[in-house]
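2024-03-11 09:14:02 DEBUG pipeline.ingest accepted 1 chain
2024-03-11 09:14:02 DEBUG pipeline.ingest length=266
2024-03-11 09:14:03 DEBUG pipeline.predict start
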Amino acid sequence: MTREGKAGRAPRAGATTHFGYEDVPVDEKTPRVRGVFESVASRYDLMNDLMSGGIHRLWKTSLVDWLNPRQGLRLLDVAGGTGDIAFRVLHRVGPARAGPAVVCDLTPEMLRIGRDRAVDHGLVGRACPAGLHWVCGDAERLPLPARGFDAYTIGFGLRNVTRIEAALAEAYRVLRPGGRFLCLEFSRVVVPGLAELYDMYSFNVLPSLGAAVTGDRAAYLYLAESIRRFPAQDELAAMMERAGFARVRYRNLSGGIAALHSGWRL
């Protein structure tokens, strides 16, 4: 992988990857992830509130606080789905003073809901003159130009890609020199005793809640499993450095249930 964002060799024939705890052929994971989010899209934001007790809102606010967006910032929010992070950034700067923002997501249905929500947030037309744009695309192969953005954010999406290294390479490619990468993702619990309680909640309460609200127990069992397969904090930081990012740091949130990772393209 070079510092210009080349993702390296394609997976070998017959290669597998993980989909939760299940091993699947590499070319099957992306369609299956898309299927998960198509299934839950209409209740996605409600489920985020229910399953986290609203704490995901505080985590996203922490991301925007650390980003500290300025006037004219060119934002790319990947796996941005229903627009939560992009909306927060635009409102923090002020829609009239913000730079162009692009929300990119794998699932068209999530983007449709995001566009509808943008109207409710007053982020269309003259209210947001630089523009809020919606792009359907894969984090591993972004349909966007190199060096076009000041900030790349991804919230609870990196664990769903097939090749994290490829997604990080793409993040590096689309950032301008001096641009910043910020990832908010579920991570490893670091508080003694909390991990056991969190596991009990994740594998018992969360799938049942998902079944009751969305009718899809399997989607939320996948969520719990995918968290456990995602790299721990230090491992993800090392992967970012190998992708070319500098000044890599992370912050644990809620005892490590989630973590924020930051890196710069210098």
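2024-03-11 09:14:41 DEBUG pipeline.report The domain at 35-264 is CATH 3.40.50.150 (Rossmann fold).
2024-03-11 09:14:41 DEBUG pipeline.predict end
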